[in-house]
Each structure stands twice: as structure tokens, then as C-alpha cells.
Write a structure and sequence with these properties.
This protein is of the alpha/beta class and about 160 residues long. The protein has one domain (about 10-160). It is built from eight helices and seven strands, in the order αααβααβααβββαββ. The protein has helices spanning about 10-15, 25-35, 45-55, 70-75, 75-80, 90-95, 100-110, 140-145, and strands at about 60-65, 85-90, 115, 120, 130, 145-150, 155. The strands form two sheets. The protein has a five-stranded mixed sheet with strand order 2-1-3-6-7. Strands 4-5 form a two-stranded antiparallel ribbon. The two termini are about 20 Å apart. About 25% of the residues are buried.
């Protein structure tokens, strides 16, 4: 879990959510995630998270990612699209005509080799919580061919 990314929170939110959780609580959450079939990788800072995430994705993979402030702040989103190691779907999809290529957009979005995105909460009981306005990223996150990664808790679903 990445627990050291600097983001400016509104003062009211900082009092409640801006403080790091104790190591005991993080360990409980990590143990519960592991018991639920997730491979948990904790990174102490954004640079280490960057290395960990990119190191898990096989070269040449079709990679898609949902909107994620964490992926942006760590530089992961940019690396996915500009490193040359992967086949990024996001720029390809954005360049397509929504009127004439909607079926192809839907197919590409639904089944990338690797899908990355953030979850909105990690519980101490080993659950990941995600909310979505349209639900468009939820299917690929659960059902991708190659693997599914969350920037909060990484899971290599092809190994389970």
C-alpha cells in the first residue's frame, strides 16, 4: 500500500483522513487482503510505488487505466503511455470516433491485458471498495485477461 503520497487536502478532511494510519492497522489490512487472495506490495514512497507497479506489468502488454490521482501523482499514468514498453489503450480509445467506433471502444475497454486504477478504500477485513459514476472501469478491473492492479493494493489475478 502506498501510504506516503503528498496531496493537499481540504482542512476539514485533513483532520479526519490526512493522518497516516498506524502500522498495526496497515498490517491487519495487508494480512486480510492476503487471506482474500491479493498479493500486497507496500511502497514507502511514490518512487518505490512507481517501480513496483511498472515492474509487475509484462512488456508489450495492452494496458488501460482508469482515472486515478494516485497514478497521475506517481508518474505511472505517463509512463504507461510514453515509456514504449506497453501498448497503451487510453490514447488509442480517446482518438477513436465515438459515433462510428463505439463497439470497438467498448471491446478494447472491456478486456485489456492489464487494467490499473485506484480503489477508494481498503478495509481491515481485506476488502477493496470502489465507486464509479458510470461503472465502466469496474468490469475490466475484475475480468481482464492478464491481470488487475490497484494502486492501493496490487493483485496479480492471473496467479490466483
Amino acid at each position: 500500500m502506498v501510504d506516503q503520497i503528498s496531496v493537499e487536502l481540504e482542512p476539514a478532511l485533513s483532520l479526519r483522513y490526512g493522518r497516516p494510519k498506524g502500522q498495526e492497522r496497515l498490517k491487519r489490512a495487508a494480512d486480510a487482503l492476503t487471506a482474500n487472495g491479493f498479493a500486497v506490495i507496500r511502497a514507502s514512497n511514490a518512487a518505490k510505488a512507481y517501480e513496483a507497479v511498472l515492474g509487475l506489468i509484462p512488456d508489450g502488454s495492452e494496458v488501460h487505466h482508469g482515472a486515478s490521482r494516485t497514478l497521475e501523482l506517481t508518474g505511472i499514468a505517463e509512463a504507461l503511455e510514453r515509456s514504449g514498453r506497453f501498448k497503451p489503450l487510453r490514447p488509442r480509445i480517446w482518438a477513436m470516433d465515438r459515433q462510428t467506433q463505439s463497439d470497438e471502444i467498448r471491446r478494447l475497454s472491456a478486456a485489456p491485458d492489464v487494467m490499473l486504477g485506484s480503489v477508494h478504500a481498503v478495509t481491515e477485513t481485506g476488502s477493496l471498495m470502489a465507486a464509479s459514476m458510470s461503472g465502466s472501469q469496474l468490469g475490466p478491473t475484475c475480468l481482464v485477461r492478464g491481470g488487475s492492479f490497484s494502486s492501493s493494493a496490487l493483485r496479480r489475478s492471473w496467479q490466483t
